[in-house]
Amino acid sequence: MKVLLIFALSFVLFLFGFNTKTTFSYVETAMDKQKLFKVIKVTDGDTITVNIRGKNESLRLLGIDTPETVDPRKPVQCFGKAASDKMKSFVLGKYVRLVDDSTQGNRDKYKRLLRFVYLPDSKATFVNGEMIKQGFAFSYRQYPTKFLNKFNAFEKYARENNLGLWGSCPLNIPNPTVKQAKPPVQKINQAPVQTSTSYAGGNKDCSDFATHASAQAFFISQGGPASDPHRLDADKDGLACESLP
Asked: How much is the pTM?
């Protein structure tokens, strides 16, 4: 009798476990079969959360970089909220198509998926590209994707037409912050005005910098477009050493 009782109890537990597994197993949907996944959250202008076959995945849009709004290590940057709101208008609550890039990894160091994002509309709207083209994001040169040249052209178009952040943020420079100080005014026939952060190591050129971002930071510290003693901005567009990654 005792053996039969133990057997019966084991059988009941087995059935319970089987039913529980069945109840919570994910069933592929019609949208899954079309490889369309719903965006359930927008963190900022370049990071979203997508539900992929029942699992919420953080996703970093490839090839773009937007002003920061949520990074605790950085201040809220000019046009950051606008970029986040624009991303929400593009994808929040909508289904999107995700495409990877063989030149990049599947995930970044934060375990976020790395993808290009498209809308399943009649134009197959390329969200990554539109964010740059409409002036809500920069072309992310630090991690060049297969669309780098196209994204650079989109950025040039937005900058030349003063779209989005290019017409709204101080100096029209990559990642300008809300607290960005104005450059000193350069007076005619007067030596360049040096700021408190001036470099004391002599003349510099683009070969002295590893990245465009480091050259740009130095360029701004020297007075930016109003004062370019090192001639880092050859085409006078407000961007230093654009040939650097």
From this structure: 0.62
